[in-house]
Request: fold
Amino acid sequence: MPRPNLDTFDRKLLTLVQRDASRGADALAAEVGLSPSAVLRRLKRLREDGVIVATAAILDPLKVGKPNFFLAALEIERERPEHIARLRQWLAAEEWVQQIYYVTGTADFVLVVVAPDVGAYDALMSRLMADNPNVRRFTTNVALGVGKRSLFVPVEPAD
Reply:
């Protein structure tokens, strides 16, 4: 898929909506120097082009039950495409798996997992191992605190 051509206005809008997607077209327009209707057209195009893939609310974990964060590193037996695709599909379907990274190094995948407690995390990982025999083993780091949590992607200025 070709990369969309993003101009200076698109890049400014992408930065602004990443910081606060609830801002209205009037406020965004005033900041980027376009009309509100032009801002809405651009945002619609950015969604249609797949640049903006979702709009989400970021919750304070302490106010919704204080979930625990786990960083899991998975090692797989064989890197056959069909095995990797099946594992990715399984992981993507799991609500507690927040992020999935296919990586280089000792591990093959690194996951960010949120769970209510260690027992729930252990049950999830037991299911992962039972349902995915291609996973050789996993290691886990438990987050003792969260210094920063973000999905912000810096958008470089146009050349």
About this structure: Helices lie at 8-19, 25-32, 36-48, 81-93, 118-131. The first strand starts at residue 68 and ends at 76. Strands lie at 68-76, 97-102, 109-115, 135-142. The mean pLDDT is 94.
